[in-house]
């Protein structure tokens, strides 16, 4: 599969990407733990089949100190013992918020209650925004067939400079 369109080489797409990344900066600087941010982004990207985003978030998580064991188990987090209850709540929200079409009610009341049990208002705001943002990023990359494997840690942040 060949990349259809070079998003970062087009002026309009590049201006959009910069603003999009700035929205991500708000989340990145929030009190939501960085490890949770990367795990959520990775899980949504796995579900959406976004190789570029899986590549990016795996590498960024590793650079932030995440272990290979936990990264390898994200897709099977329900059957794993390496995630905290708070991380499990965030991963459940990521899955349900990503698979909106699969459930007529979207995010379940049970999952929402778990999220509220583990995260304060600022963290919830960041988590909800993150799920929305990563799903949008996945769609951008999947539509243009942006493939994984070439991402270099810190490259997206560098684009903000």
From TrEMBL:
InterPro entries: AhpD-like, AhpD_core, CMD-like. It comes from the Bacteria. Residues 16-96 form the Carboxymuconolactone decarboxylase-like domain. Pfam families: CMD. Gene3D superfamilies: AhpD-like. This is Carboxymuconolactone decarboxylase family protein. It comes from Saccharothrix xinjiangensis.
């Amino acid at each position: 599969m060949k990349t259809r369109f070079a998003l970062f080489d087009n002026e309009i797409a590049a201006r959009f990407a910069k603003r999009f990344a700035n929205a991500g900066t708000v989340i990145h600087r929030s009190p939501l733990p960085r490890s949770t941010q990367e795990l959520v982004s990775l899980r949504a990207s796995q579900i959406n089949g976004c190789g570029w985003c899986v590549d990016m978030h795996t590498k960024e998580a590793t650079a932030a100190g995440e272990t290979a064991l936990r990264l390898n188990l994200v897709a099977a987090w329900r059957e794993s013992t390496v995630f905290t209850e708070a991380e499990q709540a965030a991963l459940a929200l990521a899955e349900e918020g990503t698979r909106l079409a699969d459930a007529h009610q979207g995010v379940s009341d049970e999952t929402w209650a778990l999220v509220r049990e583990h995260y304060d208002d600022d963290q919830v705001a960041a988590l909800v925004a993150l799920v929305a943002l990563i799903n949008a990023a996945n769609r951008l990359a999947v539509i243009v067939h942006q493939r994984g494997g070439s991402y270099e840690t810190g490259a997206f942040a560098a684009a903000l400079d």
